[in-house]
């Protein structure tokens, strides 16, 4: 056996480095992935969200009622807007546009003057306990601050009791169980990861096995190839949803307040969006490793910026804008709304069209690049 040779080692290292340089896509992903992780964890993630969407119902706005609303706004936790009716409040909570609805009772000023300690009812959306936790805890401090700011006459009337009380009513998840937030989100994350990873290999596998020429020689349209590639994985996705729901209902006692048929129909569109993205990556990638790297590069922001791990409202504006582009964000809202709130088609419709638009765009891109392969 020959002795160890630095010359041969240098030659082998040079050969390996040349192979790496011939794959610029992999080099870009290697650099971009840690940078993206650093930006997301450094700037986008916040477990103590502020500026949460809040609606206020006031029968007859008065000076002290406006003071209470101003205190909520100045706390930094609430982004307050006045509501015109209870119907608007109900729709806002159901569609996820509002996390809090503050209901100030009629005659609030007079009842404070008489020392009756009136209650201000706050309805909260309990489908995301982490998002509302800190804001709800801050209400006690607001009561003490406002009591000190009372005029002397009112302070004397409320010397023995609090001037008013915040009564929090948590909807959809009264016990604020984390499992009721995690399981619906997990359905979307599992679907996203599995369908995306499987379909990214669809076209590249044909190339590496040498069967791509046979596929190109067939008298079929690009869209027909795309549909044939993704069809088996739609069934796999539905099977995963069924397994998760059976385990969640049987072992974790997940409530189902909405229509299962509607849920499966909507998830079909979400599955299609991920499959279309996977096919797009598969047509762009030169080999299976590149396709998997593209999928991994996508999965991290899809999971972190969707509101699954950290509250969506706690992210800065730029991160929320990016998150709104991703179908996972809208799918999570839909699944939580159907399962926990009993939402119907009217409530989830605003979340459906972004998924449909994303799916359509990715299909067009995939077909275009597949046609370039044909040429």
UniProtKB/TrEMBL annotation:
The ABC transmembrane type-2 domain, residue ranges:
143-373
Kindly give the Pfam families that the UniProt entry links to this protein.
Answer: ABC2_membrane_3
Which membrane topology term applies here?
Multi-pass membrane protein
Localization (cell)? Cell membrane
Q: Give GO cellular component annotations, separated by semicolons.
A: plasma membrane
- State if Zinc-finger is listed as a keyword: no
Q: Which UniProt keywords apply?
A: Cell membrane, Membrane, Transmembrane, Transmembrane helix, Transport
Q: Show the stretches that span the lipid bilayer.
A: 25-45, 182-203, 230-254, 260-282, 294-312, 352-370
Q: Name one GO molecular function term.
A: ABC-type transporter activity
Record family assignment = Belongs to the ABC-2 integral membrane protein family.
> What protein am I looking at?
ABC transporter permease
**Species name for this entry?**
Gluconacetobacter azotocaptans
- Highest lineage ranks of the organism? Bacteria, Pseudomonadati, Pseudomonadota, Alphaproteobacteria, Acetobacterales
